[in-house]
Amino acid sequence: MSTESALADGVREALAVDPDEFAARAEEEAEIVKQELRDGSFDNHQSIVGFEYEFYAVADGRWSEESRAGEYALMRVPRRLLELMGFEKELGLHNAEMSTSPQPLSDHGLRAQLAEVRARLEAAENTAGVEGMRLVSDGIWTIPPTGETAREYLTDCVDVDGVTVAVNMSDSVRYHAMANTGAADERGTVVEAPGVSLAADTVMPESLITSIQPHYQVAHAETLPRHFRYALRTAGPLLALGVNSPFFPPELYDDGWDGERVLSEGAAENRIHVFESVLNERTDDDKVRFPRDVHDVETAVDRIAGDETLIPMPEPEGTDRFDDQFATFRTKHGSYWRWVRPVFEGASRSSANARIEFRPIAAQPTVRDSIAFQAAFAGLMEALPQREHPVIRLGWETARDNFYAAVADGLDADIEWIGRDGETTTDTDAIYEDLLDHAEAGLCTAGCPEEEAASWLAPLRWRVANRTTPASWKRDRVRARLDAGDDFETAVHDTQREYIDCQSDTLIDGGFSAWKDSGEAE
């Protein structure tokens, strides 16, 4: 049986699941989760951190004619290569994902996170290099595979025994099943972002984007709602520091959107638009959104169980995992796509945890900058609740508005914050002084020496002081290239190549701040 036929069979099996029975199982298992919460199964003796890190692969020009001709063109990663690298498959065939081992929140724990990412990424880059490719840490790719257009790559699909299969998507039944639900005339998705409206028959356009996802496990599950409310209020300011997807592949822009218009009206973080528009197209309620506050932990469980079902997957086969007793609930959580979301799981009772996944941040230029966001988020989750920071009184609507202002304008966004003195401010320096001072204090509380705590956050303080984000770095270079006479496509592609060139020297051991003095656009 071919891989395509097996995938089509899996899609048909998923589509045959009774959605009412699936929802009923999830609701029943939610009660199990709530009982385990009452029994203390999800409590830990201290806060714990983890990390997910997504990449895409490009031709590096060292070995093949195709690679040289492509000049960092997107490349598909062979599945066997992912296994050799110890990475996981993601949505697109060009994607690869790494998940770190959870570590206690402490200086040693953060160092372990940094060391693990560096060690595994270095080994992966060495393995990928043999195949003439390189892994890139970035928010969005703009150069399609050699000989293909971005539109072709993202929309190519085939019919396999009546099942629509995206040619360049990994063999995930859930994602392929999304293209085959509902009436034939209701299927399909559309990327909707400033200047872009790309229609496709599948969710493959979501593979334009890549992210980092810091995880923070609370020590006591009952405190998760308070941490969650603080996380929502930090989401806008942290996103504004991390914007890194200002440009799409140039051919995807609508008529009338030239370089000048993209620079003046385009978003700083198109990753948010892509994820929301593609995955919300197939549901009545927006599944990808800025979530509401949670005021008790059982409500968090109920929201996951009651979330609109997109694909009612078959009941998973049992293993020896502790959380197999609520396996359908875990499956339901897999499509609970909120920008900040609670998670309840664990392979064993001793490793069971209640955590917050912080999902707004695009993949960053370097590992050091990426881990800075992990440290900042964890430090804030330690300090803000402990110190009863008054920003928790910031209205939910304002926190949401801050988030989407950051999507549009990055560090130039008008963001509202309540400082430690209880006064409202929109001053950028005041906001980030308070935010990062509390992140630093939280790291110190967790056991980091003051000098080390400051060092973890230094890359983010540099961004504030220099009013520079990865998105503004890209925009400045495209601006310079347009002024020098380049057309928009050339300006975007050459900026992408400069980004990758700078990253080749700094990804594992350097920092984004070193890029400020890199060669100017010619």
Descriptive overview:
- The longest helix has 24 residues, at 107-130.
- This protein is α+β, with helices and mostly antiparallel strands and 522 residues long.
- Strands 1, 2, 3, 4, 9, 10 and 11 form a 7-stranded antiparallel β-sheet that branches.
- The relative contact order is 0.14.
- The chain has helices at 3-15, 19-38, 65-70, 79-85, 107-130, 150-155, 173-178, 224-242, 259-265, 270-280, 297-305, 327-333, 367-386, 396-409, 428-445, 450-466, 470-483, 488-506; strands at 48-59, 95-99, 103-104, 133-136, 157-160, 163-166, 189-193, 196-200, 212-217, 340-345, 353-358, 417-418, 424-425.
- Helices cover 45% and strands 12% of the residues.
- It contains 18 helices and 13 strands.
- The model has no long low-confidence stretch (mean pLDDT 93).
